[in-house]
Amino acid sequence: MQATVKWVDGRLFVGESGSGHAVVMDGPPDHGGRNMGPRPMEMILLGVGGCSSFDVIDILQKGRHDVIDCVAELTAERADAIPAVFSKIHLHFKVTGKNLSATAVERAVKLSAEKYCSASIMLGKAGVDISHDFEVIEG
């Protein structure tokens, strides 16, 4: 896997993934940025949410569950000292479907957390306290 990050100006950077997709990252004005994109640490949090959501949907669809929507709401805490690493991340999944059982969703979330989500498992091994919960919404 490869990526490049190019400085534009101020605290504005453009990252390009090995698959050819670009994203703008920027800082807040009080740190020399113009608030033109997410912060790099927000990108890490989004990556955790995207990776885990990918797993949950994949597992549920492979199980032939009728999923209509899946939203992962993430909250994170960071250390007060420099480096301001994540100390806690919580993922709350809101999964909507037709006749979707809580057992199936619980299994998908657990498999993602314990076996498949590279991003959250990597951060967990680095000492981040990662927790998950979910709710099932009838669609």
From TrEMBL:
Matches recorded under SUPFAM superfamilies: OsmC-like
Classification via InterPro entries: KH_dom-like_a/b, OsmC/Ohr_fam, OsmC/Ohrsf
Protein origin, superkingdom: Bacteria
Protein name per UniProt: OsmC family protein
Source species of the chain: Methylomonas methanica (strain DSM 25384 / MC09)
